[in-house]
Every structure is written in C-alpha cells, then in structure tokens.
Structure to design on (301 residues):
C-alpha cells in the first residue's frame, strides 16, 4: 500500500453514503436471536471450539490473557493517558488541580499476580467483541433480509448479558459487562482473531454486516411535546391569538437554531471521516472489508 494511501477497508467503509441504521427493516424476535446465537456458538462463547480456534496453544499463553491480567507497566500507561485526557477537559478557574497519576514504582509495589480463569475470561472478551459487531450502531442482516435488532448501545449490552445468562443457566451478567465493548481494554491486545472468528461464523450462515460510521444526530422533540399537550385539553379552551403568534415566532427561531446545529454536526462528521481516512480502520472494519476473511459483497450504509 502506497504511503498516505488509506487502508482498502477504510475506502470501502468510509466512502459509502452515510445514513443512520435502517429502522424500517423487519427484525428477529428475542427467541430468534437466541436461536441464532445458539447456532453461531453451539458450545458457548468459551467452548472448546472457540478456545481451540483463538488460542491453539492455550489461553494462558495467548496475548488475550493480558486483557484481564495487565502488567504494572500497562496500568501505568493507561492511568497516565487517562489523566492527560482529563486535564484537557474544560475546568472552572477555581477548581483544584487534578491528582497526579500513580507512579510506576507505586503500581509495581502494589501489583500482584492474579489467577487465570480461562472460561470466564474468554466468554467475557468474546461478548465484548460481539457488542462491536451486533451493537455500536451497526447492523447484522440475516439471510432473509431481516436484521438482528440490538436497539441502543446500552440495550445491546443487556441482550448479550441475557444471552450469556441463558447459556450459563444463572444470572451472572448485566448490561454493564458488555456496554461499550472493549473500549477500556482496547490497548491490551489485538482482537482481530476474535472478529475474524465472529465474521467467519456469520458468513458461513449467510449473514451480512452493515457498518455505520459513528455520527451524532439532532432530534426535534417539539412535535411530541405538542402532541402530549394537545391530549391534555382541547385547543379551543384556552386559545389566545397573541400567544399563538408568539409561539409561531419562537418555533421559527428554534427551526433556525436546529438547522444550524444539524449543519454543524454534519460538518463535524465530515471532518471526523476525513481524519479517520488517515488512520488504521477499527478491527471490525479491517476484518469485514479487508482481506482477512470474506463475508460476501460489501454492504455499507
């Protein structure tokens, strides 16, 4: 690949027309989603087949073990980066200074080796990666054109937690275990092999994946507010012409403000796409649209 040339997967994913997830597609029921996952992972998210595919030499000797057992050096890097990010946030002039990050020596003195729990660590990490595929504003489309609708990002975490609890036969997880996926451990390992496994299993069963570049939208709640107010009492009971004219003027001003906000969000999104074109793609995009595994023809919105 030539210098400064975007990754081919980035060109495929980011150059496509951008749109929010298609809410009009018919969706799988909760029972059907459970059946799909049972078929995708017949032995569970940490079954012998999963462990053999991801870590043929053993989980304890794999790079994934660092996700749950980071070194003191790794923790120190993460804490320093977090404190630097916090320092960039706006602060009140009279706010006290932020406490410094612990030193490496302090972390090394407190660091203790922890016991490796193979099945728990594997299933939780696979679940976090599943969140990026099935949630995170992306869509998984079934062979019949219906989608596996995981709803909001929070609800996506809840669906995964429920699926895993059903698999285990007990209530052990809730949405917070999978909400935001690998965001807090993204620098501890390369999750490409996990995404490769997920996409391969989806492809073998005829499923496709629609990528949505992250984007913010401004929603106008006034129509809903007006509808709720109209349900309380008939409009003629307290109709005031002067008040109605004032409300029309207020709506006009808010329409202008909303248009400016949406234009600003659109411009911010365009700039974010341009910046992303100069960076490596997310692991999901690299696997799905790169050369690591075929998953049917690109289907991007």
């Amino acid at each position: 690949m030539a210098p400064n040339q975007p990754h081919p997967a980035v060109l495929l994913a980011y150059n496509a027309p951008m749109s929010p997830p298609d809410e009009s597609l018919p969706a799988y029921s909760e029972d059907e989603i459970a059946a799909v996952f049972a078929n995708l992972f017949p032995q569970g998210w940490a079954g012998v087949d999963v462990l053999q595919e991801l870590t043929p030499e053993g989980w304890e000797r794999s790079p994934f073990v660092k996700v749950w057992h980071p070194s003191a050096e790794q923790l120190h890097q993460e804490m320093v980066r977090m404190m630097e990010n916090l320092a960039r946030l706006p602060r009140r002039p009279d706010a006290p200074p932020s406490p410094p990050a612990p030193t490496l020596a302090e972390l090394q003195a407190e660091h203790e080796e922890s016991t490796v729990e193979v099945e728990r660590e594997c299933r939780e990490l696979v679940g976090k990666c599943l969140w990026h595929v099935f949630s995170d504003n992306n869509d998984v489309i079934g062979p019949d054109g219906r989608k596996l609708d995981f709803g909001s990002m929070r609800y996506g975490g809840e669906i995964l937690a429920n699926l895993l609890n059903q698999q285990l036969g007990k209530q052990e997880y809730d949405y917070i275990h999978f909400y935001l996926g690998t965001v807090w451990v993204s620098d501890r390992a390369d999750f490409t092999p996990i995404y490769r496994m997920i996409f391969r299993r989806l492809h073998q069963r005829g499923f496709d994946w629609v990528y949505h570049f992250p984007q913010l939208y401004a929603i106008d709640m006034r129509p809903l507010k007006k509808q709720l107010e109209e349900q309380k009492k008939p409009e003629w009971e307290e109709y005031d012409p002067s008040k109605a004219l004032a409300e029309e003027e207020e709506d006009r001003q808010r329409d202008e403000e909303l248009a400016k906000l949406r234009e600003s969000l659109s411009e911010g999104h365009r700039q974010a796409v341009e910046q992303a074109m100069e960076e490596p793609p997310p692991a999901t995009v690299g696997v799905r649209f790169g050369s690591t595994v075929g998953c049917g023809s690109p289907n991007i919105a």
In short: The radius of gyration is 24 Å. The longest helix spans residues 241-277.
